[in-house]
Design goal:
With 412 residues, the chain is of the alpha+beta class. The chain contains 19 helices and 7 strands. The chain is elongated and about 115 Å long.
Amino acid sequence: MEDRRESYTTGATPPTNKSDLLKRFGDTALPEDRLEVGFDQYGRRIITQAGQTGAAYQRFLYVTPDGKNFSVLDYNGVVREVKKEFKNIEQLRTSLYRKGKLTEKDYVTKSDSGLSEAILEAANEQSKEIVDALTLDDNFEAKFTSMTNWLNTRPDYVGGEGPSQRGQEITKLDASQMIDAFTIDMLGREATPAEQKDFFERVSAEMKKAVVKRKTVGDKSVESGSFLDQEDYSRIMAETIKPAIRGTSLEAIASGTGAIAQSITTLKTYAANYGIRLSTQEALDEVVGGLQPGGSLTTGKLDQQQQKIKNMAKSFYTNLGDSIDNGVSIKNLANQFANIKSQMLEVPLESVDVFDKDVQTALRNNGKTGVMSTTEFDVLLRNKPEWGKTKNARDEAARYANDILKMFGAVG
């Protein structure tokens, strides 16, 4: 999801009931009105809407002060409307601070940017509650409340001040949607109930440890610790699905439609391009390695795995290291020799690939820098028994005999 602050608000007459809002999340909604539930780069559930370029932008469901209507607003729009609703900025700042949305540092320094971020955090949380009520609560309209009233219903932190220790929480619904999206992407299917439960328990346990602590040093507020980020979520989701990978037949995984199956094919093709035989099992092992912390598959890339194959090719073809570093494909070099062999020995071109014995001999070139010359390869092929059985050889022999006869005047 792109995080660009595109200017946008809905029309002057926003929908006011459950059925109207449901349409905004349905397939029948017009492209410019349709809303979806997505995730930001930190794995937090948000409301998104496609812009004119097709990119997804975050949106907020802002309820009017009377609690009757709502608008779909962008970042700037929701900050503007919430400030307008409260009128007294200091009252808004204090409310957000007491509810733990505004840090002590931003509260004390009266940071405008800090206030805006706190409003966005509160607005996103309220928007998620509206969506949950929309899909789960038959008495949906009763959940419609203004930002002022919504904040008033939130519990204050101890002492009526901002939190000295903040943590993360995740609902089972959020966790299920995250692991579903991940398994669909990786394995081409939704997560099983057992996987949903496992992921929720894993991420909840880590969230309890990932806290941000605050203390005041002199006249400054200092925070330590960090929350889980997208890399952490990817790592936990990868650990969750690994048992499914190990417990599924190799053929079933390789023939799937998810990113893992696609990555297996991609790696095998990449390896072949560099003259390396990579079995399906070996490719799968590399892919699973990409699901380890620091691996690259969870970001949709295979850079680390491909670099490993490239290094392997340089060790196999020590004479071609410079060519490989300069982006020359072993397969492209092999194709030149495959074409020569196909024509000379009169064999189907598709039967000669980079792993053909004669092609490999030409590529390795007895360890000498570079590949064989075409002349050397020609001599190599002519010394093979197969050469004598070809029409090319017979025609050449006939021409040679005819030249001899001409020399002795036996033919005109």
